[in-house]
Amino acid sequence: MAINPHGSNPGAPFDVSPTPPAAPRRAFLRSGTGLATLGVVAVSGAGYLLYRPGNDRQLVFGTLAGAMQEVERLAGAAVQPLAPATAWSWSQTLEHCAQSIEFSLQGFPAPQSALFQNTLGAAAFNVFDLRGRMSHNLAEPIPGAPALDASTPDASAALARLRKAVQDFAAHAGPLQPHFAYGALSRVQYEQAHAMHLANHLSAFDVRG
Q1: Which residues pair with 81 in a beta bridge?
Q2: Which of 39, 157, 187, 207 is a good FRET partner for 33, with 20 to 30 A between their CA atoms?
Q3: Is residue 80 classed as helix, strand or coil in its secondary structure?
Q4: Which among 34, 33, 58 has a CA at the least distance from the CA of 48?
Q5: Which of 110, 135, 4 is nearest to 57 (CA)?
Q6: Are 119 and 44 within 8 A, CB to CB?
C-alpha cells in the first residue's frame, strides 16, 4: 500500500490484516451492506460518512509515533490549512486531536448508546480499518467536548497538550474507555483509531511553500 501518494509520510505501513473476531463483520462490509450502513450513520449526524474534501493529502499512519513525526514536521515550519479541506485552525485541530486521546483514557463526555456502538459505530471502524484510513467531517467536534479555542493563532499550548496526551496514552497501563462511537477497542485498535484520526486531520494541512 502506498503510504502517501501526495507527499512525504514518515509513518509505517498500515497493517490491515483481518483478525478472526472481526471476520464476520468484515465480510458483511465487503458485501456492500456495510457501506449502506455508513450512509445511515452519516444521516444520523454522527459524521462517519466516507467523506473526502478537496486538497486532502490522504496521509496514512500505522502508529501514533508516525503521526507525531508529521505533527512535528508541520509545527516546525510555516503550516497552513489546505482550503477547503478544513475550517479549523492548526491550533484547534491539535486541541481536538488531543481531546480524543485524553477521552480514551478518561471517558468520553457524551457517548452514543451501546446499541449504536455495537452496530453502526463498529461497522464504521471496520470500514476505516479495511481502507487503512478514516474519513470524517473535519469540522465536527467530539460530542460533549469543551469548545475549541478559536481566539488565538498561537498553537504552542495545543501542541504541548497533544504531545502530553500521546505520552500519557503510551504510558497508560490500565483499561481504556470505550470510544464514544466505536465502543470498546483493544489497545492496538485504539492506537490505530488515534493514528487514523490524526492522519485525517493532518491531511488538511501542509507546509507553506
Answers
A1: 205
A2: 187
A3: strand
A4: 34
A5: 4
A6: no
